[in-house]
Amino acid sequence: MSKAQSGLGSVKRDWSITSSNPPKSSQELPWDPTPPKQAPPPSSSAALTGREKRLRDIQNALDNRSTPAVTQQKRLSDSDASQAAPPAKKKRQLPPGYRNNDEYVPPKHERDDDHDPAAWRSGAFSTVSRPALAKSTYTAPPPSKKPAAVFLSQEQNQILKLAQEGHSLFYTGSAGTGKSVLLREIIKSLKKKHSKAADAVAITASTGIAACNIGGVTIHSFAGIGLGIESAEELAQKIRKNKKSSTRWLRTKVLIIDEVSMLDGDLFDKLSRIGSILRKKLEPFGGIQLIVTGDFFQLPPVTKNSSNVKFAFEADLWKQAISRTFNLTKVFRQHDQEFVDMLNEMRFGTLSRKSIDKFRSLSRPIHYDDGLGATELFPLRGDVDRSNSGRMSRLNTPPQTFKAVDGGTIQDPGQRDKMLSNFMCTELLTLRQDAQVMLIKNLDDTLVNGSMGRVVRFCDPTTYGTDRDVEGSEGQVETLASTSSTAKKPPSAAPGMQYPVVEFSLPNGGKRTLLITPDSFKVELPTGEVQASRTQLPLILAWAMSIHKSQGQTLDRVKVDLGKVFEKGQAYVALSRATSLDGLQVLNFDEKKVQAHPKVAAWSKTLETVSD
């Protein structure tokens, strides 16, 4: 086809509307559909002034904006062009999952990771070198990169508002009512309110495990009282001699205490009196705003004589220190109303015959298709260790042991070891292929604290990004620099060190496979001082777990032998970890083991609800 026939012989712009004479840059130019192999050098007559060059660039930009691309649309003749309608404005196309993450599939042409791995290894693709990335394989929609949005119920929002207004309050609720979720929102809100003073909000808990879960310290550590066995006056004198401790008391505006159910009433009074002495104010705690939470129906304070236990709500100054007390009623963990009602009866120690029969029927074995079993909860740590080590010994695969890296400002070995023992992660973690593990840190909106999985292999992070998916599995692939949220490179990583690749089971039935690298756990004061830290894999063996460490956890699969529980509240704590009856197995159910402390049951009737 000739140039004339194709319509590409020349390109000429019609300037009759805008000017009488076209600019030099619009003169007729030769147009060859196939560019010559080598263009002739420009002649000296083609040189343009700076002003002409700018005009040419502007006009070319206008041409590109208003004229359809040659390769995409049939070229119109000059006569046709005058009658043709202007091109329709291109509509913006949003991805199908713009409003629904479950429907969204990332565009593959924009991701280097979706090229054939074999082609990458053969050098078929040329790229700028970059650090090796860990790889995560999905058989479910990929999770959001951002933390999942938190939606509070009406009663939670009202409590949050009261906290923001400066009220001292206590709130409680049965297991799964969102006490921890609300506490994190309160902490975030009050830190924002007092943002000018970084140490104005003190985050504490009665136990080390609870303190670690909310990113705080024990109440003993915050107060600087050691064991706290002396009188309030003696303890105040002791604190005055410690500049850091006394400064904390003076600068604190809000004191948060989680798991107050395990705080002795006498100690609560001592702390209140110490605050008054150090801050020289008669109000309880020296006028500090208190945000206190916990469930008194769960594990009680640890005392030498359990029959003479004194709860925090029995403290002499409780009513003066805390003006409002609330009971959350909406359950989020369990969605089966029958199960919710059974747990509420158990919480108060008043089981109906129907609930007793239902709990006894849960002794049946449960089989899961993904090869993972239930986590068995024990009251004693020794039983947990025996169960996990016994299951590990049955695996005929080589062991891999990971040693934690510990740090912190506390120099006393005894005090430091006690703090470190409160972490969920262990000093030594031994794993094998096919070991059942639990994630103990939130990574994103699908892999959270409590997610269950199994070790499928071990791999060096520097080569994992170029390996094929585990066992040839297919699916969407996400790249993550590390599971660590605190460092780009794991502090304890060593050249050639191999880490576990874990296949996690998701609640919706999907799978995620991820290389797990070390992460950091720490005990931090309001000033930012890290008293104790541990860098370790955020995993624990998950065939068995202690009831004490399970407090606050949400587990999809739970197995409990009630014949071994011995403390009031243990049965309730253990069974309420489960999200459904389908994932709960109960052995040796005995209604006599289901007990609630009568003082707690009587006091709970005085609590407010949001509707009051």
Task: Describe the structure in your own words.
The protein is of the alpha/beta class and 612 residues long. Helices cover 28% and strands 17% of the residues. It contains 20 helices and 24 strands. The strands form 6 sheets. Strands 16-3-18-17-15-14-21 form a 7-stranded antiparallel beta sheet. Helix 5 (154-164) packs parallel to helix 6 and helix 9 crosses helix 11 (265-279). The chain is globular and about 90 Å long. The chain starts with a helix and ends in an 8-residue tail after the last helix. It comes from Mycena venus. InterPro entries: AAA+_ATPase, DNA_helicase_pif1-like_DEAD, P-loop_NTPase, Pif1-like_2B_dom, PIF1_helicase, PIF1_RRM3_pfh1. It is found in: Nucleus, Nucleolus; Nucleus; Mitochondrion.
